[in-house]
Specification:
Four copies of one chain form a homotetramer. Chain A has two domains: 245 residues, Aspartate Aminotransferase, domain 2 (3-Layer(aba) Sandwich); 124 residues, Aspartate Aminotransferase, domain 1. Helices cover 41% and strands 14% of the residues of chain A. Chain A is built from 13 helices and 13 strands. Chains A, B, C, D: This is Aminotransferase class V-fold PLP-dependent enzyme.
Chain lengths: 396, 396, 396, 396
């Protein structure tokens, strides 16, 4: 029988039942006024989650990768320079995308496990007297290493350097799970996906775009049609869409934001922090540590657990799947085997997280890793029971 | 947000996603041949789950209580004697139902925590020289105490006494989760409900009826219409139903049996036993014990946990619900407060059960009970990891 | 491929998508406060639909037949007299049920096609000087013949006769589709089912019960447990239920009533009348007529169409199903073959009804009946386009 | 209340219930073997529907527009020449996309209402002695005008000209509804979307790619990442996906193809033809005609109905939506107002189509157009009843 354990991959995340129902809708004529009625709350909701005070929200039937591509193709031209730090698989991939699109990427190589290097960024910007750098790319939460970066710090660095570049932020695995402040941080494009904190199926790239980035599209010469913001905004203005929209996901997005806001965004962030901290307590109780270089970098959505010497993180992930029907994330790229990843974002309860920790422990014991069964669970229990808010039993 | 922890009440149980989908169907004309095509596999599937070699399966849009009522009203007449042991809330309720229907119930009062008293039953039957006892009622699994009874033993007692009474078995919380042998045990009526081992929503009483019980309906004078077997069987024979059937539940039943049989009924029973044994190991690790009087009585679908002196089981259940969003069962009747109940039947994985145990432990700690966090979890982990079969990741 | 034409049986009716979603829910602990939060709106909603000003609403996991049984077993004793007119299959079945439960039914045989005979009822009541008649049974809408009866008229007859009998009304195929006035008509028990005007799957008997009927349960000696009102009301008072409730159907009921009330009950009734009148215009355009004896008896939920001499209504129903995938109702009992029935209740639009009429016409042509293709459709179109209110495109 | 009439827009189409269920799935780890098990049947199914004998199937979380973009960016370089006829809004848009991507489009302007001009295409290819034309773009079914083009004829023209260009076919509104022969027609890239003949929600671009087109990606210099075939094929080979896939849509695609194949693809095409022909009979009975220039061009998936002089097709579409809750398609671009469009593809029955025709007639009468109510319905009825195959009642 197909059993339904929660997943602990760092996205796609567990989908609440009511979100699934909101997405699962009959066919609607997207050229009718009904579409506009459904679209507007989704767009307005994203605006609130991102904390935008101006600019536009763009929804594209695509993924985070498509969101990255939309960000750069709508604002930049071949040969333009962008500045980016590389410190994990996902920061790498965005850089690679830029290079494929003939952008000149000034890469700040940074050890995996660290976050965006503020001083180096500021230094690079100061060195760019001619303002060739058109955009700074920042990965808010590096899903591969479980590291969050200080976006406010990047903005401060840009301001300190007096540099006019745009700030593009990959918030795919942070937005709607960790605090985000589009307006406060001076973000020009924020990229999110439906399948992480928004708790939807994959299939929607979600972007916040500042007026400055919108203005940039007038001169941007990278080719685009599917991702074209201008077509989008022109259609939105008429209550339409430039091609067939992913209506169900848009309806689901509006509903998911309703859920998040009925819990309270601050409560959502606090819950993610609490769940994450419990996971970290378990990790330390196992005698291990997060891969992130320092506590200030710990992600509240995913923990990459450094495995003991001689142990193989990938083996744990495979065993958890095959023996216990539970999905964790493997280490990617240069940390393959050296970590396994526990996603703890989206719809999750303390009880669910404890089940994940318990399964991880069983796998460790099965694989002969040095761990005491129940030790991580107990550490997380102790933390959770002292910090949890009362939750009402789900009436749904 | 409405979080979706598994429930650990002893029914209704967690519903697999595909069962929900099977139940959720558009309107079908129940007077068309399509209904018969849908009905037959459900009936045939129940026959296999019950291990019937003859007799009929009856499906009524009702519940286990309705199934009890159907059993007696179709086969008995006012003033008839039935023999029943009372050792828990559910055996009590069936007795009460019989009394309301003007049956003369010969009650063998048995301490809660024990099972059906074979010797006393045999003795009572032997004493009934005139064969006034028309039926023996047996509660296969007393949901209130977590006690299973030996139905084969009751049949042996009846045979030893040479008594012609019918044998009616309440299998509501056992059937489809624990081995059941309608033919082998000489059962005359077995009563099940949709919402336990069959993993469906409540709303369907499921009965297996022997030829002897069917014959009894010819002379039974207790009034019935909604529950009337004769109407049912006459309609079934024509591919119909005497009134509007619960089509979705019937479709879901057929699908649920497909799931059970694709896992293998023996594997389903083994899984229930394994999950239950893990729970019991946790209970002992907590320094507590199941309420069932002896290990041979331990139910594999529900464990009533005796709480330590001075502790209140109901408080634990309330705290688990209000603080952790998790549902356990309270003690009922004379064991109110003295136990709390962990249901471990239906769609459950080791990971889910561990989450339940972890939450129970947190509640105990919160309530000041003497327990070491993680202790029960560790005992269950150790047992599970040594006994679990590989399960494939749910592709569904 | 399984195509999804609307059904035109007189129940179960087409289920709105959002009602299906409301019914399709995960497992909820029915002993938790969450159940009470879900139950109360359903009960309160039924109270408004029935127009009750006092008394109780009872919801039983059962069907209309179960509702009939609950009505009589909770209020009457063996040998009690009830008065009922028989003028169709469903009035017959309730009478039969009473007889099986040892009630003495004074039957007023009435030609099928007519409604409840007010004068005869008044006469019978006046003749019952000793007030042996404890209840008058009335079938508000005889589903077999498409005839509505005048319940206010029956109440007037009872009052005129000064008779204290209770008034029990079968509103299974009228309630929520045609005006009903529990308080105004002095109804003592109204019986509805989930699968008609409430647009839910079958599986819920819905009853309104007056204080007088509740008082009657104190002395009623017909046996009942599953259907026992006293257990129900005692449990309801504590936010509970006497056994496992059909939680999904109860949630769906609350939602369906929300839908009905957001349309406006008067608008719902007006829509049913308009759809029905269009069907009747089509029937006359075909040169046929409703089976109901006179226009004041025309049901707004089902039309039994008298077929031309030499034609077989059942053949039409079978052909519609096998060739066109569309479900109509056959004639039952003494009108088998002489009529076919078009159900036009629940979630239906003008467009849907026109598709039903168009299919009926094709079947008639296929069977060689004298009909002009498009004639009935045109008559209904003409009526609908002159009377329809603007409906918003479904945004769901 | 939100009523659920079928839609008659030319896509997205009505979604079968079981397809909705197949799409609506819980979260699956797309890096686990479960994903490969789910992905392979979808890909293999598309291969059969397209009639591919070699090459690759590509599935992208996108739409038909994204499919167009993927086709050209993976195979062409800036400045490459493509040949395309423009005879409707959708052929126009693909041309526009090419131009935005810096391709040199040799456009054969063709009157709207006509199909791809074979002679002109052959002439253009013969004139291209230097083989600058790298690809011929062909719109198999022009959704704006209801015109199908002769793809086999284009292939013949290419062969006759001895031209090595690739053949790219937009089959968005034809594939899975009208015969398609990837191998037989020598197609190099076929573009389809999920939301038309495949009866899924929008959100998936579906492409068939020939070995020749795959080889072209080695030298193609148009930038792409999200749409990159090479990344896709490398990931597919390992049972993976280059980013997060739209798992539910992929599962739904496999299921939808199961439905199509269980009906039989030839039967699906025949059904579409039959439904379309009935619509056309209605159109002629109204005294109107399809916009397509000649019968050999009539599309079996959408009919653009030329409205009488002085009438406004857009007004009809708006009235149908606002008054009758039914969705038709407006005329686009140069035929705005001059036509209205009836989509008749995907999950549709004769009964549903008749409801659409009946509503169209009511709108015409409401708008004062010269039409006899029921006339088109009758013409379609006559045709359908003579040609329909028996369909089994939906048991789902």
């Amino acid at each position: 029988m197909s059993m339904q354990n929660p997943v602990f991959i760092p996205g796609p995340t567990n989908i609440p039942d009511s979100v699934r129902k909101a997405c699962d809708m009959g066919t609607l004529d997207h050229r009718s006024p009904a579409f506009a009625r459904l679209f507007k709350p989704a767009v307005e909701g994203v605006r609130r989650v991102l904390k935008m005070d101006e600019g536009e929200v763009i929804l594209i039937p695509s993924t985070g990768t498509g969101g990255w591509e939309a960000a750069v193709t709508n604002t930049l031209s071949p040969g333009d320079t962008v500045l980016a730090a590389r410190f994990g698989m996902f920061s790498h991939r965005w850089i690679d995308l830029c290079q494929r699109h003939k952008l000149d990427v000034e890469i700040i190589e940074t050890p995996w496990g660290e976050g965006a290097p503020l001083a180096a960024i500021e230094k690079a910007l100061r060195a760019d007297k001619g303002h060739h750098i058109k955009a700074v790319l920042a990965t808010h939460n590096e899903t591969a290493t479980g590291v969050k970066s200080d976006i406010a710090g990047i903005r401060a660095a840009m301001d300190a350097a007096g540099h006019p570049a745009m700030l593009f932020v990959d918030g795919v695995s942070s937005i709607a799970s960790m605090p985000f402040d589009f307006a406060g941080w001076g973000v020009d494009i924020a990229v999110a996906g439906s399948q992480k904190g928004f708790m939807l199926p994959a299939g929607l790239a979600i972007l916040g775009v500042s007026p400055k980035a919108i203005a940039a599209m007038e001169t941007a010469r990278l080719p685009r049609t599917f991702f074209d913001f201008k077509d989008m905004l022109a259609s939105y203005a008429k209550g339409g869409y430039p091609y067939t929209p992913a209506v169900g996901l848009i309806a689901g997005l509006a509903h998911a934001i309703d859920l998040l806001e009925s819990e309270g965004l601050d409560n959502v962030y606090a819950r993610h922090h609490r769940l994450a901290e419990g996971v970290r307590r378990a990790v330390f109780a196992w005698g291990m540590a997060p891969f992130a270089a320092s506590p200030d970098l710990y992600s509240d959505t995913v923990t990459a657990v450094k495995v003991p010497p001689g142990c193989d993180g990938t083996a744990l992930v495979q065993l958890a799947a095959s023996k216990y029907g539970m999905a964790f994330g493997v280490g990617l790229g240069e940390v393959a085997g050296k970590v396994f990843r526990i996603g703890h974002l989206g719809m999750l309860t303390e009880a669910m997280v404890l089940s994940g920790l318990a399964v991880a422990e069983m796998c460790m014991a099965d694989l002969g890793w040095p761990v005491t069964l129940g030790s991580g669970v107990a550490a997380a229990q102790e933390y959770y029971r002292g910090t949890i808010e009362a939750v009402a039993l789900a009436a749904e």
